[in-house]
Amino acid sequence: MIDLKYYPMPDHIRKQCNQHFSYTVIVNLFTSRDEIKDYINKNVKIDSDEKLSEDELIRRAADVVDGLVETNAEFKDYDSVQVSGFTIANAYNKEL
């Protein structure tokens, strides 16, 4: 478990966020299509009125990406799409 460092919320994020906290999680996906293997990064923005733990952020980001993979035409031609990693890129607090 890491101790997230929170930063003041920039104006462009503040305008988009109605909650107290905003996070950006980068989800790394390992893909294969016709025996060609590749990695794709997806940025997931998560807003919350409560501070979220690292585990909760990863769970929420994984849920978003799972839904994206299941419904987005971008992924329909892949033989396999697997989550291979997470990076918590930003943690903003509106009150700082």
Structure in words:
The chain has about 100 residues and is an alpha+beta fold. Helix content is about 25%, strand content about 45%. It contains two helices and four strands, in the order βαββαβ. The chain has a four-stranded mixed β-sheet with strand order 1-4-2-3. The chain starts with 6 loop residues before the first strand and ends with a strand. The mean pLDDT is about 90.
Structural class: alpha+beta
Q: CA-to-CA gap between the ends? A: 23 Å
Helix coverage percent of residues?
Answer: 25-40%
Whole-number average pLDDT? 89
Main sheet, how many strands, which sense, barrel?
A: 4 strands, mixed
Low-confidence residue ranges: none
Order of helices and strands: EHEEHE
Strands side by side in the biggest sheet: 1-4-2-3
Strand content: 35-45%
Number of helices: 2
How is the topology of this model organized?
Layout: E1 7-8, H1 11-16, E2 21-33, E3 36-48, H2 54-71, E4 80-93
Parallel strand pairs: 1-4
Antiparallel strand pairs: 2-3, 2-4
Jot down its keywords.
four-stranded mixed beta sheet; 25% helix; 96 residues; alpha+beta; 2 helices; elongated
Summarize the structure.
It contains 2 helices and 4 strands.
